[in-house]
Amino acid sequence: QVQLVESGGGLVQAGGSLRLSCGASGSIFRIADMGWYRQAPGKQRELVAVITNGGSTTNYGDSVKGRFTISRDNAKNTVYLQMNSLKPEDTSVYYCNARVVFTRRDYWGQGTQVTVSS
Fold this sequence. Notes:
Number of helices: 0
Low-confidence stretches: none
Order of helices and strands: EEEEEEEEEEE
Shape: globular
Strand content: over 45%
Oligomer: single chain
Largest sheet: 7 strands, mixed
Mean pLDDT: 95
Radius of gyration: 13 Å
Distance between the termini: 40 Å
């Protein structure tokens, strides 16, 4: 059984920062690429950032490049998303994703709300 549990969401003013965390139970963390996605009401889920299982490669959605940073600690089975210079348009539910490298199977967290006030 794989569980992903996000934390760190909340309300912040524009220009502020938040750090999201996603802890993974089970044995997949080290063989999974980890990612953050977000979905606002009425919109499709979109990629925020991904990091490969070894942590050597990252990729970001265009709207967050230069402001957000994804990282992982394989010893703690945790992936982080540092969000700086937040904008009201970053308001969304943020979901943690684990994609097992060998099977390409996806696992999702329950989501955490991030609200940025103007």
